[in-house]
Protein backbone atom coordinates (compact mmCIF):
# COMPACT_ATOMS: atom_id res chain seq x y z
CA UNK A 1 0.00 0.00 0.00
CA UNK A 2 1.32 3.43 -0.96
CA UNK A 3 1.12 6.09 1.77
CA UNK A 4 0.98 9.74 0.68
CA UNK A 5 0.98 12.71 3.06
CA UNK A 6 -0.86 15.82 1.83
CA UNK A 7 -1.32 19.38 3.01
CA UNK A 8 -3.67 22.14 1.86
CA UNK A 9 -3.38 23.79 -0.59
CA UNK A 10 -2.35 20.88 -2.78
CA UNK A 11 0.88 21.27 -4.71
CA UNK A 12 4.00 19.29 -5.47
CA UNK A 13 5.58 20.90 -2.39
CA UNK A 14 2.67 19.87 -0.15
CA UNK A 15 2.76 16.22 -1.22
CA UNK A 16 0.65 16.11 -4.41
CA UNK A 17 2.09 13.36 -6.65
CA UNK A 18 3.17 14.32 -10.14
CA UNK A 19 1.00 11.75 -11.87
CA UNK A 20 -2.34 10.67 -10.41
CA UNK A 21 -4.50 7.94 -11.87
CA UNK A 22 -8.31 8.05 -11.61
CA UNK A 23 -9.38 6.39 -8.38
CA UNK A 24 -12.17 5.44 -6.02
CA UNK A 25 -11.77 7.21 -2.67
CA UNK A 26 -13.23 6.37 0.75
CA UNK A 27 -13.17 9.49 2.94
CA UNK A 28 -13.40 9.71 6.72
CA UNK A 29 -11.57 9.92 10.02
CA UNK A 30 -12.02 6.16 10.52
CA UNK A 31 -10.87 6.12 14.16
CA UNK A 32 -11.06 2.50 15.23
CA UNK A 33 -11.67 1.22 11.69
CA UNK A 34 -14.74 -0.45 13.20
CA UNK A 35 -17.33 -2.49 11.30
CA UNK A 36 -19.10 0.63 10.04
CA UNK A 37 -15.83 2.05 8.71
CA UNK A 38 -14.92 -1.32 7.24
CA UNK A 39 -18.20 -1.31 5.33
CA UNK A 40 -17.40 2.10 3.78
CA UNK A 41 -13.88 1.00 2.83
CA UNK A 42 -15.05 -2.36 1.49
CA UNK A 43 -17.57 -0.64 -0.79
CA UNK A 44 -14.77 1.55 -2.15
CA UNK A 45 -12.49 -1.45 -2.72
CA UNK A 46 -15.23 -3.46 -4.44
CA UNK A 47 -16.17 -0.57 -6.72
CA UNK A 48 -12.52 0.10 -7.59
CA UNK A 49 -11.91 -3.52 -8.51
CA UNK A 50 -15.05 -3.61 -10.66
CA UNK A 51 -14.05 -0.42 -12.49
CA UNK A 52 -10.38 -1.34 -12.82
CA UNK A 53 -9.31 1.67 -10.72
CA UNK A 54 -7.11 2.12 -7.68
CA UNK A 55 -8.83 1.88 -4.28
CA UNK A 56 -7.81 4.76 -2.03
CA UNK A 57 -8.70 6.10 1.38
CA UNK A 58 -8.33 9.59 2.88
CA UNK A 59 -7.96 10.13 6.60
CA UNK A 60 -7.01 13.20 8.61
CA UNK A 61 -4.19 13.73 11.06
CA UNK A 62 -4.25 15.11 13.67
CA UNK A 63 -7.86 14.41 14.56
CA UNK A 64 -10.00 17.46 13.61
CA UNK A 65 -11.29 17.69 17.19
CA UNK A 66 -7.71 18.12 18.42
CA UNK A 67 -7.37 21.19 16.20
CA UNK A 68 -10.84 22.62 16.66
CA UNK A 69 -11.37 21.75 20.33
CA UNK A 70 -10.09 23.45 23.44
CA UNK A 71 -6.38 23.36 24.20
CA UNK A 72 -5.38 20.31 26.23
CA UNK A 73 -8.62 18.47 25.40
CA UNK A 74 -7.23 16.09 22.79
CA UNK A 75 -9.54 13.21 22.00
CA UNK A 76 -8.36 9.72 22.90
CA UNK A 77 -7.97 7.38 19.95
CA UNK A 78 -9.10 3.82 19.33
CA UNK A 79 -6.35 3.32 16.77
CA UNK A 80 -3.09 5.18 16.31
CA UNK A 81 -2.30 6.38 12.79
CA UNK A 82 0.04 3.41 12.35
CA UNK A 83 -2.65 0.97 13.53
CA UNK A 84 -5.15 2.58 11.19
CA UNK A 85 -2.89 2.26 8.17
CA UNK A 86 -2.35 -1.42 8.91
CA UNK A 87 -6.11 -1.96 8.93
CA UNK A 88 -6.48 -0.08 5.62
CA UNK A 89 -3.93 -2.35 4.01
CA UNK A 90 -5.63 -5.43 5.42
CA UNK A 91 -8.90 -4.30 3.81
CA UNK A 92 -7.31 -4.07 0.35
CA UNK A 93 -6.57 -0.35 -0.01
CA UNK A 94 -3.96 0.54 -2.65
CA UNK A 95 -3.27 4.15 -1.62
CA UNK A 96 -3.73 5.87 1.75
CA UNK A 97 -3.79 9.68 1.82
CA UNK A 98 -2.97 11.21 5.19
CA UNK A 99 -4.30 14.76 4.99
CA UNK A 100 -2.72 17.16 7.49
CA UNK A 101 -5.59 18.82 9.34
CA UNK A 102 -4.67 22.33 10.47
CA UNK A 103 -6.45 25.62 11.14
CA UNK A 104 -6.15 26.71 7.49
CA UNK A 105 -7.66 23.49 6.14
CA UNK A 106 -10.44 23.76 8.74
CA UNK A 107 -11.67 27.03 7.19
CA UNK A 108 -12.06 25.93 3.56
CA UNK A 109 -15.56 25.76 2.14
CA UNK A 110 -17.23 22.54 0.97
CA UNK A 111 -16.84 23.85 -2.60
CA UNK A 112 -13.09 24.29 -2.14
CA UNK A 113 -12.72 20.78 -0.73
CA UNK A 114 -14.45 19.29 -3.74
CA UNK A 115 -12.76 21.43 -6.40
CA UNK A 116 -9.30 21.90 -4.92
CA UNK A 117 -8.83 18.51 -3.30
CA UNK A 118 -11.06 15.80 -4.78
CA UNK A 119 -10.94 17.03 -8.37
CA UNK A 120 -7.15 17.45 -8.12
CA UNK A 121 -6.86 13.85 -6.89
CA UNK A 122 -8.76 12.52 -9.92
CA UNK A 123 -11.52 11.05 -7.77
CA UNK A 124 -14.06 9.35 -10.02
CA UNK A 125 -16.08 7.87 -7.21
CA UNK A 126 -16.21 8.91 -3.55
CA UNK A 127 -17.56 6.64 -0.83
CA UNK A 128 -18.60 8.16 2.52
CA UNK A 129 -20.64 7.26 5.56
CA UNK A 130 -24.14 8.61 6.09
CA UNK A 131 -22.87 11.06 8.74
CA UNK A 132 -19.82 12.34 6.86
CA UNK A 133 -19.22 16.09 7.11
CA UNK A 134 -16.63 18.33 5.46
CA UNK A 135 -15.72 21.93 4.93
CA UNK A 136 -15.82 24.86 7.36
CA UNK A 137 -17.66 23.96 10.59
CA UNK A 138 -18.60 20.61 9.04
CA UNK A 139 -21.19 22.34 6.91
CA UNK A 140 -20.89 19.87 4.03
CA UNK A 141 -23.15 16.80 3.95
CA UNK A 142 -22.97 13.66 1.81
CA UNK A 143 -25.83 15.02 -0.29
CA UNK A 144 -23.96 18.29 -0.87
CA UNK A 145 -20.83 16.33 -1.77
CA UNK A 146 -22.80 14.51 -4.45
CA UNK A 147 -24.23 17.76 -5.79
CA UNK A 148 -20.91 19.64 -5.87
CA UNK A 149 -19.01 16.79 -7.49
CA UNK A 150 -21.67 15.80 -10.02
CA UNK A 151 -19.62 17.00 -13.00
CA UNK A 152 -16.70 14.65 -12.40
CA UNK A 153 -17.48 12.01 -9.79
CA UNK A 154 -20.18 9.77 -8.37
CA UNK A 155 -20.82 9.67 -4.62
CA UNK A 156 -21.93 6.57 -2.74
CA UNK A 157 -23.43 7.10 0.71
CA UNK A 158 -23.14 4.07 3.00
CA UNK A 159 -25.92 3.61 5.54
CA UNK A 160 -25.15 2.99 9.25
CA UNK A 161 -23.94 -0.46 10.23
CA UNK A 162 -26.25 -1.93 12.86
CA UNK A 163 -25.70 -4.73 15.35
CA UNK A 164 -28.87 -5.76 17.17
CA UNK A 165 -30.46 -2.48 16.04
CA UNK A 166 -27.60 -0.47 17.57
CA UNK A 167 -25.50 1.78 15.34
CA UNK A 168 -21.80 0.97 15.38
CA UNK A 169 -19.88 4.14 16.26
CA UNK A 170 -16.52 5.18 17.68
CA UNK A 171 -18.31 7.01 20.50
CA UNK A 172 -20.17 3.88 21.61
CA UNK A 173 -16.96 1.84 21.46
CA UNK A 174 -15.20 4.37 23.72
CA UNK A 175 -18.11 4.13 26.16
CA UNK A 176 -17.82 0.35 26.29
CA UNK A 177 -14.06 0.51 26.84
CA UNK A 178 -14.38 3.10 29.62
CA UNK A 179 -16.89 0.80 31.36
CA UNK A 180 -14.70 -2.30 31.01
CA UNK A 181 -16.87 -3.76 28.25
CA UNK A 182 -13.99 -4.72 25.99
CA UNK A 183 -15.84 -7.81 24.78
CA UNK A 184 -18.72 -5.57 23.65
CA UNK A 185 -16.26 -3.18 22.03
CA UNK A 186 -14.75 -6.10 20.13
CA UNK A 187 -18.13 -6.92 18.60
CA UNK A 188 -18.33 -3.42 17.11
CA UNK A 189 -14.67 -3.28 16.09
CA UNK A 190 -14.70 -6.70 14.48
CA UNK A 191 -11.54 -7.54 16.48
CA UNK A 192 -10.29 -7.03 20.06
CA UNK A 193 -9.49 -3.53 21.28
CA UNK A 194 -5.69 -3.28 21.14
CA UNK A 195 -3.01 -1.05 22.58
CA UNK A 196 0.40 -0.81 20.91
CA UNK A 197 3.34 0.41 22.92
CA UNK A 198 6.89 -0.16 24.13
CA UNK A 199 8.04 -2.41 26.98
CA UNK A 200 9.86 -0.33 29.57
CA UNK A 201 11.48 -0.99 32.92
CA UNK A 202 9.15 -0.85 35.89
CA UNK A 203 9.79 -1.13 39.61
CA UNK A 204 10.56 -4.87 39.34
CA UNK A 205 8.13 -5.70 42.15
CA UNK A 206 6.23 -8.29 40.12
CA UNK A 207 9.30 -10.50 39.79
CA UNK A 208 9.93 -10.44 43.54
CA UNK A 209 6.46 -11.85 44.24
CA UNK A 210 6.64 -14.53 41.54
CA UNK A 211 4.66 -12.74 38.82
CA UNK A 212 7.06 -10.83 36.54
CA UNK A 213 5.34 -8.26 34.36
CA UNK A 214 5.97 -6.40 31.14
CA UNK A 215 5.29 -2.71 31.66
CA UNK A 216 3.90 -1.27 28.44
CA UNK A 217 3.90 2.44 27.69
CA UNK A 218 1.26 3.15 25.00
CA UNK A 219 2.60 4.78 21.85
CA UNK A 220 -0.51 6.94 21.37
CA UNK A 221 -3.25 8.63 23.35
CA UNK A 222 -5.41 5.50 23.41
CA UNK A 223 -8.84 5.42 25.01
CA UNK A 224 -8.23 4.44 28.63
CA UNK A 225 -9.91 1.18 29.69
CA UNK A 226 -11.65 0.97 33.04
CA UNK A 227 -9.07 0.46 35.78
CA UNK A 228 -8.83 -3.21 36.63
CA UNK A 229 -7.65 -6.63 35.53
CA UNK A 230 -8.06 -8.06 32.03
CA UNK A 231 -7.43 -11.32 30.18
CA UNK A 232 -5.25 -10.40 27.21
CA UNK A 233 -3.29 -11.61 24.22
CA UNK A 234 0.29 -10.33 23.99
CA UNK A 235 1.91 -10.00 20.56
CA UNK A 236 5.68 -9.70 20.26
CA UNK A 237 8.18 -10.64 17.57
CA UNK A 238 5.53 -12.24 15.38
CA UNK A 239 4.34 -14.55 18.18
CA UNK A 240 1.30 -14.39 20.43
CA UNK A 241 0.97 -15.37 24.10
CA UNK A 242 -1.76 -15.27 26.71
CA UNK A 243 -1.59 -13.08 29.75
CA UNK A 244 -3.31 -11.14 32.49
CA UNK A 245 -3.02 -7.35 32.63
CA UNK A 246 -3.59 -4.82 35.37
CA UNK A 247 -4.50 -1.29 34.29
CA UNK A 248 -4.24 0.98 37.27
CA UNK A 249 -2.36 3.02 39.83
CA UNK A 250 -1.17 0.12 42.05
CA UNK A 251 -3.05 1.16 45.22
CA UNK A 252 -1.47 -1.61 47.34
CA UNK A 253 1.97 -0.05 46.92
CA UNK A 254 1.51 3.49 45.58
CA UNK A 255 -0.40 6.53 46.75
CA UNK A 256 0.47 9.22 44.23
CA UNK A 257 0.61 7.75 40.71
CA UNK A 258 -0.83 10.34 38.33
CA UNK A 259 -1.17 8.09 35.28
CA UNK A 260 -2.36 4.47 35.15
CA UNK A 261 0.19 1.82 34.20
CA UNK A 262 -0.25 -1.21 31.96
CA UNK A 263 1.38 -4.26 33.58
CA UNK A 264 1.09 -7.64 31.85
CA UNK A 265 2.02 -10.99 33.36
CA UNK A 266 2.66 -13.12 30.26
CA UNK A 267 1.96 -16.82 30.64
CA UNK A 268 4.77 -19.31 29.99
CA UNK A 269 7.15 -16.56 28.91
CA UNK A 270 10.70 -15.71 29.97
CA UNK A 271 12.45 -13.38 27.55
CA UNK A 272 14.13 -9.99 27.60
CA UNK A 273 11.82 -7.72 25.59
CA UNK A 274 12.75 -4.34 27.03
CA UNK A 275 12.53 -1.62 24.40
CA UNK A 276 10.46 -3.78 22.05
CA UNK A 277 7.23 -2.67 20.41
CA UNK A 278 4.33 -4.93 21.37
CA UNK A 279 0.57 -5.21 20.94
CA UNK A 280 -1.86 -6.07 23.72
CA UNK A 281 -5.38 -7.28 22.85
CA UNK A 282 -7.91 -6.82 25.65
CA UNK A 283 -10.23 -9.83 25.61
CA UNK A 284 -12.23 -9.68 28.82
CA UNK A 285 -12.58 -7.60 31.99
CA UNK A 286 -12.03 -9.76 35.10
CA UNK A 287 -12.42 -7.38 38.05
CA UNK A 288 -11.90 -3.76 39.13
CA UNK A 289 -8.56 -2.68 40.58
CA UNK A 290 -8.47 -2.90 44.36
CA UNK A 291 -6.19 -2.30 47.31
CA UNK A 292 -5.04 -5.36 49.29
CA UNK A 293 -4.17 -5.43 52.97
CA UNK A 294 -1.02 -7.51 52.48
CA UNK A 295 1.36 -8.67 49.76
CA UNK A 296 0.27 -12.28 50.36
CA UNK A 297 -3.37 -11.31 49.77
CA UNK A 298 -2.27 -9.70 46.50
CA UNK A 299 -0.32 -12.82 45.47
CA UNK A 300 -3.31 -15.06 46.16
CA UNK A 301 -5.56 -12.82 44.07
CA UNK A 302 -3.08 -12.68 41.17
CA UNK A 303 -3.04 -16.49 41.15
CA UNK A 304 -6.84 -16.51 40.92
CA UNK A 305 -6.80 -13.82 38.22
CA UNK A 306 -4.22 -15.79 36.22
CA UNK A 307 -6.26 -18.99 36.44
CA UNK A 308 -9.38 -17.16 35.30
CA UNK A 309 -7.54 -15.44 32.48
CA UNK A 310 -6.02 -18.71 31.24
CA UNK A 311 -9.48 -20.24 30.89
CA UNK A 312 -10.58 -17.34 28.71
CA UNK A 313 -7.36 -16.98 26.74
CA UNK A 314 -6.48 -20.58 25.89
CA UNK A 315 -9.27 -21.24 23.33
CA UNK A 316 -8.62 -17.88 21.65
CA UNK A 317 -4.88 -18.51 21.66
CA UNK A 318 -5.29 -21.95 20.13
CA UNK A 319 -7.39 -20.46 17.35
CA UNK A 320 -4.84 -17.66 16.75
CA UNK A 321 -1.93 -20.08 16.54
CA UNK A 322 -3.81 -22.50 14.28
CA UNK A 323 -4.91 -19.78 11.86
CA UNK A 324 -3.12 -17.13 9.89
CA UNK A 325 0.11 -15.49 11.09
CA UNK A 326 -0.45 -13.09 13.98
CA UNK A 327 -0.58 -9.35 13.51
CA UNK A 328 1.89 -8.64 16.29
CA UNK A 329 3.89 -5.50 15.64
UniProtKB/TrEMBL annotation:
Q: Which reaction does it catalyse?
A: riboflavin + ATP = FMN + ADP + H(+); FMN + ATP + H(+) = FAD + diphosphate
Q: InterPro entries annotated for this entry?
A: FAD_synthase, Riboflavin_kinase, Riboflavin_kinase_bac, Riboflavin_kinase_bac/euk, Riboflavin_kinase_dom_sf, Rossmann-like_a/b/a_fold
Q: What is its EC number?
A: 2.7.1.26, 2.7.7.2
Q: Which GO terms describe its biological process?
A: FAD biosynthetic process; FMN biosynthetic process; riboflavin biosynthetic process
Pathway assignment reads: Cofactor biosynthesis; FAD biosynthesis; FAD from FMN: step 1/1; Cofactor biosynthesis; FMN biosynthesis; FMN from riboflavin (ATP route): step 1/1
Where in the numbering of this chain does the Riboflavin kinase domain appear?
188-314
Q: Which Pfam families match?
A: FAD_syn (PF06574), Flavokinase (PF01687)
Quote the NCBIfam families the UniProt record gives. PRK05627.1-3 (NF004160), PRK05627.1-5 (NF004162), ribF (TIGR00083)
Q: Which family does it belong to?
A: Belongs to the ribF family.
Q: What does this protein do?
A: Catalyzes the phosphorylation of riboflavin to FMN followed by the adenylation of FMN to FAD.
Please give the name of this protein.
Riboflavin biosynthesis protein
Species of origin reads Paenibacillus roseus
Lineage here is: Bacteria, Bacillati, Bacillota, Bacilli, Bacillales
Amino acid sequence: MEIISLKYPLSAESGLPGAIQPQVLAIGQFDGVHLGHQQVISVAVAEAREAGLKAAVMTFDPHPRDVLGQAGQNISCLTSLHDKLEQFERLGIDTAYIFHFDSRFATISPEQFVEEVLRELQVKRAVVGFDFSFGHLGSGTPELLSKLGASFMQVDIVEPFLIQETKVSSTRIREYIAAGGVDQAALLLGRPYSIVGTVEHGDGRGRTIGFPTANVTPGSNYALPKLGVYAVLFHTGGEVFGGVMNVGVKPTFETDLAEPTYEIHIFDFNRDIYGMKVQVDLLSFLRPEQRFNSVQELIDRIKTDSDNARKLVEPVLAKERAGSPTEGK
